[in-house]
Amino acid sequence: MRTFFGRDPDVAVVPAAAGERAGRTRLAISTATPTVSSTSPAWIDTIATDPTFARVRWDRSVEVPVVTLDGLVESYGIPAFCKIDVEGSEADVLAGLTRPLPALSFEYLPSAHERALAALFHLERLGQAAGGYVYNYSHLETMDFASSRWVDETDLLRLVEKFRPLGRPGDIYARARVSQ
Q: Which of 13, 30, 98, 175 is geometrically suited to a Cys-Cys bond with 103, CB 3.0 to 4.6 A?
């Protein structure tokens, strides 16, 4: 992050994991594929059986500080959009948020379907106080929406189920029904 954004005055690089509560946690690192480093041992156990991740090995770990989304909002303000791509800790990151955000996305992996649903259900509860969220889904990393319209939670679940048998990841997008 520092390499790409370290000199941009409009970007704050926070060397910490995001989670449910501030503190410290272990970050499991895959030296050969660092983009799948994770703070979630349960996620690692789940996807270790996924053929897509057959060659991934988490061969070391480090202790890192944890911040919450609420803490980041307090420090930096409400973001227009929040991208959550935390390898299995999406529900934990959203649990550290007590107010709806205008728009966000989080990763969906078919092999970790239940973890993604936990993130979605937390987001639904959070959004209820502010008019709710509408959703869309982008298969793989195309950033093309699977639906021509924004849908409610029920229709999103149907949409995700359509892509789930393909075994490929995507991103769930959410936007507040009412502008913040």
A: 175
